[in-house]
Specification:
By secondary structure, the protein is mainly α. It has a domain of 57 residues. It contains 3 helices and no strands. Helix 1 crosses helix 2, helix 1 crosses helix 3 and helix 2 packs across helix 3. The longest helix has 25 residues. It is globular and about 40 Å long.
Length: 87
């Protein structure tokens, strides 16, 4: 159970950081939002991969790309929303 939680945190951070790298410009979100965008991207990308491929694990690289792109979309939406809000 502890390993599952650890792997979810590390995987979410990794996908979130890769998603942040895809989005150009400044991303005014912190570590927690990066983690949440990574988790959301992993879930959304995994669902899309499951719909596109009969066996998503056989296409692990394309599944990873879909997860990172979904995380990048979430990062972009979140940072766009935060830039508009007056500080």
């Amino acid at each position: 159970m502890l390993f599952l939680l650890f792997s979810m945190v590390v995987g979410g951070l990794l996908i979130g950081v890769l998603g942040r790298l895809v989005v150009p410009g400044p991303n005014p979100i912190g570590l927690l939002w990066t983690l949440l965008c990574g988790w959301g991207g992993a879930v959304i990308g995994g669902i899309v991969a499951g719909l596109l491929f009969r066996h998503p694990r056989a296409h692990w690289f394309l599944t990873l790309v879909l997860e990172v792109l979904a995380a990048a979309l979430l990062v972009w939406l979140l940072s766009r929303r935060r830039r508009r809000r007056p500080v």
